[in-house]
Structure formats: structure tokens, C-alpha cells
Amino acid sequence: MSEDSLPGEFPGDRLAGTVRDPERLPEDLPAPRRLAESFRVYEVDAATDEGVKYYGDPVVDSDTILQRIGPLFRQRGYRVALREETGEHVLIAQQRSVGVDGIPWTNVLLAAATLLSTLFAGSRWYGLDVLGDPASIIQAWPFAAGVLGILAIHESGHYVLSRYHRVEASLPYFIPLPFNVIGTLGAVIRMNDNIPDRRALFDIGVAGPLAGLVATVVVTAVGVTLPPVQVAGGIVTQVELGFPPLIQGIAVLVGEPLQYSDPTTIVNPVVIAGWVGAFVTFLNLLPVGQLDGAHVVRSLVGERFGSVQLVVPIALFGLAGYLVAFERGQGAFLWGFWGVLALVFSRAGAVTPFDETPLGPGRSAVGVVTLLLGVLCFVPVPLVVSV
User: What percent of the chain has pLDDT over 70?
Assistant: First the structure.
């Protein structure tokens, strides 16, 4: 064990205590004395399942502690978190891993379940009788491929930039939802790591929406060139979609309609997959909590993000109220629900990077453009369901 990994003395009333199971203390971890200006350690437990625990007394607030000592752990291959346990402050260091160990069975099974649920949802848009002919569900593959392709490309954007910045992130987790009109609640990746600086936070946050937008444009452009489908009754009479400016603009450029005089004729379901991509992009770009928009805006404005975040639920509740007052309540429940979610997400707080150096003009411009593109994915009444 190197000298740097042994406990030392600190100024003040308390001294470094014992190291439990010292033979299990990794040699590359910083010595407690290295943390003294921010966190005065009196005991180290190296034998826990959660990682190495440094027990001590904070000298500064928790955010400052992590910003000061986080890089020291990160450069040695560890992520660090601060919390309280039975009245004691404990700093937990866990070894980082940016690779994929073994077959991610959870991700695979969720992806397979989401494939089935999007095929089932797509079968309704194609007017297929899946109950009478289960094999016909395969005919809905263009819709399922469009939806899953957009979601996969979106999350891959996050994953690739996470790997680029050496931030630990999971592969995408797809979320199936068999009985709604799109078959999924989207997909997420888990970032269980510290973020080194604002640039990394921005790049990881913005990569998903931009990649997803490119995929959405491609899927929509292909979809509007495909023939419309005729569906007698069923989902056509139950669901009405509102197309955002992005989808409408693509249709105009290609010279194809999004609506038809025959009420039983609808756009090709691949266009609806593009609608899903636009809707998901707008929701993800809301600047609240841990959403992509929060990462982008937090990177742009720094600690002022708290004030921006307060506006989001107010705006969503205001939109719901407007729809109740002037649009017969269409879409009001959706935005009211997201207003509640925004309040919940905001309680989780935003990601705080170690280095708060502001972004350069290039990244700032990309961030503003991305948020404006997100506005093109917005429509006040995206979905109306008739019972």
C-alpha cells in the first residue's frame, strides 16, 4: 500500500481514524489527508459492497466538496457521491467502468418486448386483425422499425458522447407499453457517474435530441412518400393526431398531404412514427430535472438554471388552462399531467458538473438552435382520443 493511501492527520479537533480492512483499500485511492480542505476524514471502510466509504466532517457545502475532490477521484478511475448515514457524513467512492460487461439481458428483453408492443400498436394503424390472424402483426414492421429506429438513434447519441467523454452510461432501456397508440413510453439510458465539466454535460445532453431529430426527419420524409392506408373504423375514429410544424414542413417540401377528404384514409403509419419522434424530442427538450433539455440549458446558463426550471411547470399548467378555456379542453389533461411531472422532476435536481467553465460560442449556438428545433416539434393539441 502506498503512503498516499494511508490515513493522515488533519488540522482541527479530529484526527484520521482507523482504516477497516486496510488490505482491501485500493492503492490508487487518494489518502484521507488529501481531502482535508473539504472533508475531514476520521474513518475509512474499505470492505463494503457499495464501495470505499470515507466517514468525516464536511468543511464546505456538499456541491463544493464534490467539485473540489471529484476530479481527484475521477482521474484515478472512481466516481464519488456524498450522503448521510445514521447521522454521519460519508463519501462513497466506486470504481468506474465505461464498458459493457457480458450480455445486457435486461436491455435485450426490454427491446424485444418493445418491438412486440410497437408491432401491436402499428397493427391498429394499418387496420390489421391481429386477433383473427396473429401472423399479420408482422405487416406492421415499417411502423415499429420507424419508432424503434428513432428511439435507438436518439439514445445512441447520448451513449456515444458518454463514451467519448469517459462517462459511465448504460445501453438504452426501451420501455414497452402494449395498449397505447404508439406501443412505447420511449427509451432511456442510465448515467451513473460524475460529469467532469459543462462541455461534457452539453455534448451528452444535446447529442440525443439532434440525432433523434435527424432520424425523425428521415423517417417522416420516407413516410410521406409511401401510400396512405385505409382503415375502416377502429383507431381512425378514436384518435386524431395534431402534426407539429416540423412534420408539416417536411410534408410540404415533399409535396404530400397529411390529411385526406376520405375519413377512413390516413397517412402511412411510417409518418406516425415520425410524429412519435417529434413528440418525444419536444418532451425531452423540456428544461427540467434530468431531461435532455435540462442538461443543455444547465450547460448554457450554469447555476441560474434553477430559475429557468421554475418556469416549466407554470408554462405547462398555463397551457392546460388555455386549452380548457378556449379549445374545449382538448390536450389539457396531457399538459396538466406533464406539469405535475415537471414538478416531480425538478425535485430531483439538475446535474452539477465538476468544472463550471462556461461553454464557448460554438456550443452555445448549437444549444440555442437545438432548443428552437424543439419548438418546431411542439403542437398544442398533439393527440385527441375519443372514447
Answer: 91
Q: Which three cell numbers stand for residue 168?
A: 459511465
Question: Is the pLDDT reported for residue 264 higher than 90?
Answer: no
Cβ count within 10 A of residue 84: 9
Query: How large is the average pLDDT for residues 17-37?
Result: 73
pTM of the model: 0.89
Bridge pairing between strands 39-45 and 19-20: parallel
pLDDT, tens digit, for every residue of 148-186? 999 999 999 999 999 999 999 999 999 999 878 899 999
Tell me how far apart the alpha carbons of residues 378 and 376 are, in angstroms, rounded to a whole number: 5
Stretch among 23-27, 32-36, 117-121, 278-282 having the lowest mean pLDDT? 23-27
How many beta carbons lie within 10 A of that of residue 157, not counting itself?
A: 25
For CA atoms 286, 292, 293, 294, the dihedral sign is positive
CA distances for 98 relative to 74, 165, 325, angstroms: 12, 10, 50
Check if the beta carbon of residue 251 is closer than 8 Å to that of residue 258: yes
Residue 371 has pLDDT above 70, yes or no: yes
Residue 164: its H or E element: helix 141-164
Q: Give the length of the chain.
A: 387
Distance of CA 110 to the CA centre of its chain: 17
Q: Which amino acid is at 61?
A: D
Distances (CA, A) of 160 to 71, 155, 206, 232: 22, 9, 12, 44
Cβ atoms of 345 and 288 within 8 Å: the answer is yes
CB 28, CB 77: distance < 8 Å:
yes
What letter represents residue 6's amino acid?
A: L
Predicted local distance difference test score (pLDDT) of residue 376: 97
CA 143/CA 171 separation, integer angstroms: 23
Question: At CA 259, angle to CA 256 and CA 262, rounded to 5?
Answer: 120
CA nearest to 204, candidates 163, 150, 151: 163
Residue 355 has what DSSP assignment?
Answer: B
Q: Are 216 and 274 in contact (CB under 8 A)?
A: yes
